[in-house]
Every structure is written in C-alpha cells, then in structure tokens.
Amino acid sequence: MSNPMRNGNGNGAHLPPNGPHHPHSPPPVASDNGNAQGPSAPAAPEAVPAPEPDPFAVAPAVCPKCGGVGYFLYDVPVGDPNFGVLMTCGCKQTSKDRRAADDRLRISNLSAFTDKTFETFDARVRGTADAYQAALEYTQTFQGWLVLFGNCGCGKTHLAAAIGNRALQRDMPVIFTVVPDLLDHLRSTFGPSSDVAYDERFETIRSVPLLILDDLGTENTTAWAREKLFQIINHRYNHRLPTIITLNRKLEEIEPRIVSRISDLSLHDGIVSIPAADYRQHGAQASRRRRRT
Ligand SMILES: [Zn+2]
Hints:
Elements: E1 71-73, E2 86-88, H1 90-108, H2 129-141, E3 145-150, H3 156-169, E4 174-178, H4 179-190, H5 200-207, E5 210-216, H6 223-238, E6 243-247, H7 256-262, E7 272-274, H8 279-292
Parallel strand pairs: 3-6, 3-7, 4-5, 5-6
Antiparallel strand pairs: 1-2
Helix pairs in contact: 2-3, 4-6, 5-6, 6-7
C-alpha cells in the first residue's frame, strides 16, 4: 500500500491527487499522528479525529503544514464553506505548477512560437501600430474576440501568438491552431468514411478558455470539415468565449455563416486591419542588420 494519502476509512480506496474526497468517507487528514511514511516521525500522543485535524501536529522534518503528503484540510467547523475541502499545500504547489505549465504549453501548440512575443514585435513597421495596440489591449482582459485582417506576412500571426504566449504566462489555457491544419485534422476525423462519434481534440478546441484561429479563409476543404469549423466558431460565439481570429481573405470570400459571427460588434470593436506590406521581410532585414553589427 503505497498511497501517500491518509484515507481515514481503512479501505484503501485511492484518493485522486486533487479531486474531492468521497462524500461518504471521512475527509483525509494529514496530521493525526504524523507522517505515514516517515519512520522518523514520532507518534503524537493521540490521534485527532477527522473533523478536527490539527495541521501542525506533525514531525518537524517534513512540511509542517501537510506532513509531506502535499494536501491539507482547513481547520474549520462543519458548515464552513471550506469544511472538507482538500487544499494543495504550498510545498507541493511549485512542482505541480511547473507540470501544469508544461501541460498548458504542450496543448497550446505554441512551442514553435515562443519567440513571438510583444517584446519581439517591431511595432515601428509601418501599418502595424494599431494592430499591436489592439492585441496588447486584448491581453488586459482576455475577453471577447479580436479579429485581425491582413495579407500574408503582415505580422498578424506574430501578434496572435504574442497574445497566446501572454495567456500562458498568466496560466490561462490556450490553443493556437492554424485553420488549414485544423481542417486537415477535422477532415480525417470526421470524414464520411470515419465512424468517430466523439473527438477529444475537437471538444478541447471548442471550449478552451482562449482559442486562436490563425489564417482563416485559406481553407479549401470538405463540407464535413467546414461544418465542424463552423460548429467550433458558432459554439464560441454563442458562449462568448475568448477567441482570436486572423484573416487573410476579404469577408466576401469567407463562408457567410462565419462572417456573420465574426462581424458581430458586440464581441469586439471591429476587425483590425493591418496594411503592413510585409512585416516578415522587414523583420528579416532587421535581423540581418542586427547580425551585421
Ligand atoms: Zn506541505
């Protein structure tokens, strides 16, 4: 029995690391007579029953708050909103935070764009200032939609990724997805010959706290995939979920149902157009200049 959690009811039931305890089990306590796995922990004179845990009656060699198990219960009376709530101890938080941040980065698709930040964006490139400002302002609240329109290479993807990277810095789950790639995925998953009824990735994208759809309008795909893309956009529209969209096609060239969603000014202050001729080219020239100096 290697479960580090003190379960209290002796049936060996495994407690999920951060889930709520079973409603019919006494709440797990960290502290009645010390650390379960620590042989050096001297036994306290008496066990404290579960409703009144004493988080400090533990061996001094381990975390005094949780006894080394990583979790504790608030010492509050029955009826208190925090009664029975399993809290993660600060000693466990650090490594858990790191793992959670790694997980968020992995699902975000932003690993390849970690250098695309506001700090590395050159807002002096002619035509980019308004979009830069709008993107920066978006990160103050992360609410509503932001729609950036511009030709290929105008810097809109950089700005969209910068928003995503800032969301990650704030521990906000985000998914950055290039629409043609997303459609490839949807086509293979939901094609007429596929019998997939439920796609986890689709569900995650549909409801992630911040979704970035890059390069909407370039897609040339099947009706199935287009329908799925519409479902994602419509779901986020109906639920007012924070969404960034970059467009490289005029609205006339995009599916009318999608246009009606992205043109709704109750979700944003209007589509931000980037007239920059070629931000990427400018960036390349700038970095060549930097390398020379
Ligand atoms: Zn602790």
